[in-house]
Amino acid sequence: MEPEDVVHVLRNVDEALKPRGRLFDIHPTADDPPIRAAGRGVGFIDARRFQPVVATTNAAVDALVGDGSFEDVRRVERDVEELYGDAEELIGTGDEWTNLRLPAATRRRIRAAEPPFQVLWRVDFRLLRKAGRPRRRP
Amino acid sequence: MRRRALYLPVRAPCGIGIDPDGKAIETARRETPRGLRRRLRFEAANARDFELPGEEFDLALFSWSL
């Protein structure tokens, strides 16, 4: 998703939710996810280009909270492990990413290592509640 | 991260899943248990432009990909 799309999507979601409806925002953080094979590190995914996307999206959600459209209910970060059965599955998936990159040295180490591969993502889970209907004045 | 469905308990009377990737939508339709197919709808679309009915939903999952 491109940063400029985020505001439009959130506006769409806001309009579709009932008053007091909940919005569950789930996305990886902008930390470089480590890759491991047989318990040893083989490198990191380069997440530099993902940072502005995360920052824009978080700012857009913060703006909804700031203007009273939503309130934060709960927010937690958790590590989520993703398994890949072989090197080409991981590298092929990496080729489809828009804002992440597998550096050349990491690709070489992946191809030289024994599968399976573990990618450890840091994921941000944020639950929000839409505001109720504004009270009508008598 | 790979695009993946969230395996959440489905207790809602109905739901809509939107993803711009048509293959992901086909997978979702194929893997949806028969008992849920009447209640769940999947559409290949961009959430930015997709028209949803106003004030209709209790919960929105905003799970965006890379």
Structural class of chain A, please? alpha+beta
Compressed to H and E, one letter per element, the order of chain A equals HEEEHEHHE
Dominant shape of chain A: elongated
Low-confidence stretches of chain B: none
- For the termini of chain B, the CA-CA separation is 7 Å
Identify the biggest protein-protein contact and residues per side: A-B, 30 and 23 residues
Quaternary status: heterodimer
Largest sheet of chain B: 2 strands, parallel
Give helix % range of chain B: 10-25%
Count of helical segments of chain A?
4
Quickly describe the structure:
Chain A has 138 residues and is of the alpha+beta class. Chain A has 4 helices and 5 strands.
Give a description of the structure.
Helix content of chain A is 36%, strand content 36%. Chain A is α+β, with helices and mostly antiparallel strands. In chain A, strands 1, 2, 3, 4 and 5 form a 5-stranded antiparallel beta sheet that branches. In chain A, helix 1 packs parallel to helix 2 (51-66). The longest helix of chain A is centred in the middle third of the chain and has 16 residues, at 51-66. Chain A is elongated, with a radius of gyration of 19 Å. The termini of chain A are far apart. The model of chain A has no long low-confidence stretch (mean pLDDT 91). Chain B has 66 residues and is α+β, with helices and mostly antiparallel strands. Chain B has 1 helix and 3 strands, in the order E-H-E-E. Chain B has one helix at 22-31, and strands at 15-19, 40-44, 57-63. Chain B has a two-stranded parallel ribbon. In chain B, helix 1 (22-31) links the parallel strand 1 (15-19) and strand 2. The longest helix of chain B is centred in the middle third of the chain and has 10 residues, at 22-31. Chain B is globular, with a radius of gyration of 12 Å. Chain A binds chain B through residues 1, 5, 8-10, 12-13, 15-19, 21-28, 50, 57, 80, 82, 93, 97-100, 121, and chain B through 1-2, 6, 46-50, 52-66.
